[in-house]
Amino acid sequence: MRESGQSMRLPAGAGLFHLLQRVRDEAHRSAVSYHLQLRIKRNLKSLLDEIESIGEVMKKSLLKVFPNIEAIAGASMDRLRA
Fold first, then answer.
1. Which domain holds residue 51?
2. Are 56 and 47 in contact (CB under 8 A)?
3. I need a surface site. Which of 35, 40, 62, 81 has the fewest CB within 10 A?
4. Is residue 9 included in any domain, yes or no?
5. What is the pTM of this model?
6. What's the whole-number mean pLDDT along residues 4-11?
7. What is the pLDDT of residue 44?
8. What one-character-per-residue DSSP string does the chain give?
9. Rounded CA gap, 12 and 4, in Å?
10. Does 2 reside within a domain?
11. Rounded distance between C-alpha atoms, residue 42 and residue 34, angstroms
12. If pLDDT is split at 50, 70 and 90, which confidence band does 8 have?
């Protein structure tokens, strides 16, 4: 019986080895995607915070409708008012 903390070697061609690799890779991909989304939201909010005439409610509304700051900047005044 192995003690906790000891590593275990698996043959490179073993099915369990490949399964563990895929689980690791998927967990990493998911974490990277999540943190990227958080970074994008944080950066977008900071740009909207610099505009004095936009309050919290308006910022939330804009973020629900437009995917990014470029979309907000390129929108017509009629679209922004809607």
1. 15-81
2. no
3. 81
4. no
5. 0.45
6. 77
7. 72
8. -PPTT------TT-HHHHHHHHHHHHHHHHHHHHHHHHHHHHHHHHHHHT-TT--HHHHHHHHHH-SSHHHHHHS-HHHHH-
9. 23
10. no
11. 12
12. confident
